[in-house]
Design goal:
The structure is a homodimer. Chain A is mostly helical. Helices cover 68% and strands 6% of the residues of chain A. The two termini of chain A are 46 Å apart. Chains A, B: It comes from Desulfobotulus mexicanus.
């Protein structure tokens, strides 16, 4: 039996560890700069792939990521499983009832987003084949069809990830986009299967294209009706007669694997099977939260980053860079895709601003475009420079999507309390013994740093305190004020070993004091912050733990990992 | 870049789905018969591998599990990752403080369990090389060394899984065995590295054996001291400055992958690196429960079953079966390993019964023996029939381990309440309106089925009810009695829509009634059952949900997946 040699195992573990580490670190950094994590993850692959590491240290690059042999297969195996499991999670997150509700809009956006770019891409490739990088001996028709599909297909996983990263996935807008992307993808893959049929048969086995299409439609319809009901009925049996939580977890993963296998057999990409299984699973009220979380976390933070990073490994982006081609393809794709989805959304009677947001949500070509490009290159239809242009187009469209949506929707990521803390606004041992003293002590550092008039602010906080004491009980006090001219909310934390009497309803002394300053213009900020803090400290061990922390980092760690009062 | 073809992807997904499904179903069945799940998982591989499926439908077997090519590599990649992550979980579960406490005994057991079987195996192979399956041209010394190490090495993962399946892993006995197995494995792999050195260099790279040994010792010592402290210090930073729970999860997995890579580079098996990283991680009080659970569940119920099933795929057990050889090797291994670990435990002053339990815990040769055998076969030192005998010996030793420990320790798996329920003792709509009527109605079915005298039992339950009413509040009542001659506890469940007045302290009517009959001889059973039920129903949504279930299966599903009052 052919197995990995010790050297293969070494390379596999090292490359996986390094790839995951780079993807997660850059993903976290991207989020720090309010970008979707997927951007950082893609960039990790570009850094470790032929483009950067391959230029600086080609031997190390080929040692970690050999192009052929067992290690290439091993990495592709992991990436393939990763994308399938990621699509399963995307499916579980889909809210089918919202999709039905948004189905009409989603259908219209899906329809325009595939056919308009297809027509425009076809026209360009047909009239300028040489400039667009056609191989001399390739058929102009096939070439034009390939380019057209490469531009019109959408990247469901990247679209889903971008929306998830912005907490828009389950919104109405998100569900219009997701249902459009599902439609786009299904139709796109069917057209793609037809084109592959034209150049000599489907890649899996010699099934006529019409049968592939019929089976795809049948499978989709079945999974969303009978399959959905069967899963809903089966879940209580699995829960009742297997060991919890293992039975339900295995059941979900096994279904996803088999659904993916079925779609691969039908001739469309395996990931759709996993997506549909996920959608059917997630729709059942019987699926337990714990199973959802276990799969979601393991997949989102381990498998997905590996997959997205692995995309960047596939090509040298500098060597095969043709500026004019990249510019043309990227511009063409952005204009075609944004405008067509925009028209679809307007056709669906969406407001102007939302229609633009839909346009920029559908712009991501992502991995789909790369897969189409790869197959076209393998089939000798396009040159390497066009492949690189397709990849850069796919990445660029994925990169502009998030920021553009953010600008259009004037979207502000909800900062959590932990995001607003800073070590310089943290007093580990408050010396104050009265509320008045505590407020003065805690205002010291922010007023100095930001050049604020301390007396005025202290007066404002104290006035509020006198009108309504802010000791909310359970050892917590939240003195606060709205301050004119403040740009953004400031939170100062003070911890008092002995406790300070903030006149709480339960008569307990306050040990953890959050002093909250919010801009006068932002009416809701104070309440949002206060209720998040109260939620965190509803868990009674939190106060005890706060008194035992050693430094600011410990306190941050405690807040971030606290079980929230309202979640599981 | 070499990638999986659509056909490869289809086979990979299908084989993985089928393998996982078979492993999990047989694993659940094994547990139903009070055997460790790992037995069923191993058997799944034997069924789907060359032995059974390969004989009945060889084409299907080779379609699913080809011996060469990308799919063989893909499956081996997944199995390799699986064993590494499983060892990481085993490491997280290790309680280092207990290991230090049990270290002396563990050291003695480890020492005898490796050297005595080694000496005996060597002697046998040296004096009867032909009978034992030596290749004609292989050196007698090398052959004897290989067989000796094949018999003396222990399977840390199977030992850990067997102990975990019986909830013995974190007991004192479990920790003696685990520390002995760690010692055995580390020394075993070092000896193995030396033997490989004798026949032409270490398999990874040409590192002298002495350096491998020195590095192994250094790495082990470092991980358990400096590495442990570094991880403990790093965890709050990861929690404080990355997105929860993703940062901590990725951090743990990345460390395990890199630790595994380092051990593979040193020249011992990658899994030890993951094990040691896991031990260091699990030792930190900063590692959050949620991360522990996410990793544990995904690995134990997805990765580990795939690994253990994949072992059974490797060989045809019937074709290469030589009864005398199998019998000799297996007998030799069992006698050598059990007696040597027994002597070690007695040397460590353990009581007789525990010493035998240690002996049978250390008997598992498992995957380690198979890996040694594979390498020996690849190096042309042993014949196929000896390889098969080694595999059967490895499996047999793994199979007898659990049952023998159970017999020796007179171990009874603690049945959960859900395990004791049966649909015939479940009344979905109680008609009774008083406690007396309810008890009568609920005793109907068990008395009929078991041929008990209903009047007597009803009188016993009612007498108990009169002396102390069993309505415990929150809509729950637990009438009960200890019955002479009853073989095992019986629980009858009745659900009353309208509620019955069991005179609860909170004056609420009882809607869910558990009637509990326990044997007169089993004094603790009643209290254990009652407190488990009370724990489950401490969560206030449970009563509400119980009133909305549709049938027995729904009720079972509810009980099994209920958040327990005392766990997270």
């Amino acid at each position: 039996m052919e197995t990995l040699s010790p050297h293969n195992i070494l390379v596999m573990l090292l490359s996986l560890g390094v790839l995951l580490a780079a993807a997660r670190i850059l993903g976290e950094l991207a989020q720090r700069f309010r970008q979707p994590a997927v951007l950082g993850e893609l960039l990790a692959g570009v850094l470790l792939g032929p483009t950067i590491l391959g230029s600086l240290a080609p031997e190390l690059n080929l040692f970690l990521f050999p192009l052929t042999g067992p290690n290439a297969i091993a990495l592709d195996t992991i990436a393939t499983l990763a994308i399938i499991l990621f699509l399963m999670v995307a499916g579980i997150e889909v809210d089918l009832s919202t999709i039905w509700k948004q189905g009409n809009k989603g259908f219209k956006v899906g329809l325009t987003s595939i056919f308009l770019p297809f027509a425009m891409g076809f026209a360009f490739a047909w009239f300028f084949p040489g400039f667009m990088g056609k191989q001399a001996h390739a058929s102009p028709l096939i070439f034009a069809l390939f380019l057209a599909i490469g531009i019109s297909i959408s990247a469901l996983p990247i679209i889903a990830k971008t929306l998830m990263d912005m907490d828009l996935y389950r919104s109405d807008l998100g569900m219009v986009v997701v249902s459009a992307a599902i439609f786009n993808d299904l139709v796109g893959w069917m057209i793609f299967a037809m084109i592959l049929g034209l150049i000599g048969g489907n890649s899996t086995h010699g099934m006529p294209v019409i049968i592939t299409i019929a089976m795809t439609l049948t499978f989709t319809a079945m999974m969303l009706t009978l399959g959905r009901q069967a899963i809903h009925k089966a879940l209580p049996f699995v829960q009742a007669y297997t060991k919890w939580p293992g039975g339900e977890l295995s059941f979900a993963i096994i279904l996803a694997l088999l659904g993916a296998a079925l779609c691969e057999w039908i001739g469309i990409h395996a990931m759709f099977g996993a997506f549909l299984v996920g959608a059917a699973l997630g729709d059942s009220a019987h699926l337990r939260e714990r199973t959802r979380f276990t799969i979601d976390h393991f997949v989102s933070y381990i498998f997905a980053p590996v997959f997205f990073a692995s995309i960047g490994l596939k090509v040298n982006f500098i060597l095969n860079f043709d500026f004019k081609l990249v510019f043309t393809i990227t511009g063409l794709a952005i204009i075609c895709k944004v405008s067509s989805a925009f028209f679809g959304a307007r056709w669906g009677k969406m407001p102007l601003r939302e229609a633009w947001a839909v346009g920029f949500s559908m712009v991501s070509v992502g991995a789909m475009g790369i897969i189409v490009g790869l197959l076209a290159m393998d089939a000798g239809i396009i040159e390497e420079k066009l492949f690189v242009a397709l990849v850069i187009m796919a990445m660029t469209t994925s990169m502009i999507s998030g920021p553009m949506i953010r600008i259009i929707l004037r979207y502000r990521q909800n900062l959590s309390v932990a995001d607003m803390l800073a070590s310089r606004y943290f007093i580990h041992r408050l010396e104050a013994t009265s509320p008045r003293e505590a407020i003065g002590e805690m205002l010291e550092s922010p007023c100095r740093t930001m050049g604020l008039e301390k007396n005025l602010i202290e007066a404002a906080v104290w006035e509020r305190e006198l009108s309504l004491s802010t000791g909310i009980g359970k050892g917590l006090a939240l003195p606060h004020a709205r301050i004119e001219g403040l740009k953004q909310a400031v939170i100062v934390v003070g911890i008092s070993k002995n406790g300070i009497d903030f006149d709480a309803p339960d008569d307990k002394l306050a040990h953890v004091i959050f002093l909250i300053l919010t801009p006068l213009s932002d009416a809701g900020a104070q309440l949002a912050i206060a209720s998040e803090i109260a939620g965190i400290f509803r868990n009674e061990t939190m106060l005890e733990k706060s008194l035992h922390i050693k430094n600011f980092t410990d306190f941050m760690a405690l807040l971030r990992t606290a079980p929230r009062g309202w979640s599981h």
